[in-house]
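Notebook entry, structure prediction.
Reason for the run: the old model in the group folder had no record of what sequence produced it. Starting over properly, with the input documented here first.
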Amino acid sequence: MNLLHLQRAAVLTGALLTLAASLGARAESQYGYDATGTSGARTATAKLDINIVVPKLILLRVGSSGTTVNSANLTAALNTGIPGGVNNPLTDGSNNASGWDGTAPVWTTATSSSVQAWAWTNASGGGKVDAAVTTALAGGAGLTAADVTVASTAVSGGGLAHPGTDTGTNATTTFTRNTIVSSNWVFSVSASALAGAAAGSYTQQMTYTATTL
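New structure, fully documented this time:
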């Protein structure tokens, strides 16, 4: 590149820098000027954008904190023991005298201890909790997810109702932002459902999912 080209490039670069500086001045600042010094107040302003970034967070806890999967335990029991015969508690073993009168035994409703659930989010629209059966009861149990009913008692923030009054039907629960919501969930299987159940130990696993709105 010859000297003339270098001079032209320098002039062009200087012009661009001057233009950029002037545009920046117009965009970010102004000035006030009084040639006589007696015309009154003048002002000069400058703008500044303050950007605040708040990360989005959602929290859900069912039972104890940590990675342990808690259990809601339901143990069936006879209402009055063997009809016409031995009352509760029955004695474990074989060939025990019963006094049975030949009528069908009656069960009591099996109920778990309460399981506390919490949720929180700062999402502008709040959050929601859904439920799904991820491990179903064994087919031979004679029980389905719909037989496991759930009662919710609010603890804080208006409560966090179980998403569905039974574990077989999801009914989305919503909650507001920046508020800790919590409820105690109690799981039950009715006496009538137990009347058709097969003896055994059965496990159904639920998955609860909290989502920002």
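Summary: The chain has two domains: 1-49, 58-74+112-212.
The old model has been moved to the deprecated folder.
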